[in-house]
Amino acid sequence: MDNTYTEEEIERCTMHGRREIIFQLRGMIKRSERITIVFQDGQHSFLTVLLDMAEDDGHLYFDVASTEEVNQAFLNAEHSIFTSLIDGIRIQFSTARGRETKIRGQRVFAVPLPKSLLRLQRRDVFRLDLPTVTPYICRIRRGTPDEKELPLHDISVGGIGVLCSEKLEFEPLEKLENCWIDLRDTGVLAVTLEVRYMRPVENRTTGKQAWHMGCRFVGLSGLNETLIQRFMARIQAERKSRLAD
Predict the structure, then answer these.
(1) Contact of 192 with 176, CB cutoff 8 Å
(2) Residue 157: which of 94, 206, 217, 200 has the closest Cα?
(3) CATH 2.40.10.220 boundaries in the chain
(4) Which of 23, 97, 197, 222 is most exposed, with minimal Cβ within 10 Å?
(5) Which class is 7-121 in CATH?
(6) Looking at per-residue confidence, does 74 or 169 come out higher?
(7) Euclidean distance between the first and the last CA atom of the chain, given in angstroms as a whole number
(8) Could you tell me what percent of the chain has a pLDDT over 70?
(9) What CA–CA distance (Å, rounded) separates 39 from 82?
């Protein structure tokens, strides 16, 4: 995997909004994702698990290290870098000095919530941005009272992004079954989605604020994966043809 990214790519993949950062961290807590903390210019590090988050006082809580030497070094550090790899996506953020406290009698560390969070996708999981003037459609929970029809923003063999005019009340890692993706000439795909993140964006058509909800496919069939690959190849070929004219 190519780990060299431009400053523009890194900035595009960096979240700055408090709500979207909290959404991402809440998902990591729910899944008990392992995360590595590096501090004091890389001299010390330890593997931990995010335990809880207090949005009101703006703190993130996680397990202490297994040795007192590392724990003391962490408490003396001015700042720390947190890094995790989730489904091939690199999550990274930095925080100010931590402190020791207790949650339900358990000894833990607490740090201020990060002001930004990097969510860097693997280069080999290519996401294709889709047209917004005549958008392709995703129907979430089709045939139920909760059905929502949303325009597709992007697609890959790993998942999709949809555009919402307002923030939807979905939880991180919530599974959305009975979803249909209408790719017109390529066909209609029945899929199950899992909500991964939600962040504010500008609607490229209206110029107004919208919400980009990223979802991954759960149990995508081989047939549907092949159809998505064909669809992406066709869209790219059509774009190249228009540019050549």
Answers:
(1) yes
(2) 217
(3) 128-244
(4) 222
(5) mainly beta
(6) 74
(7) 34
(8) 93
(9) 9
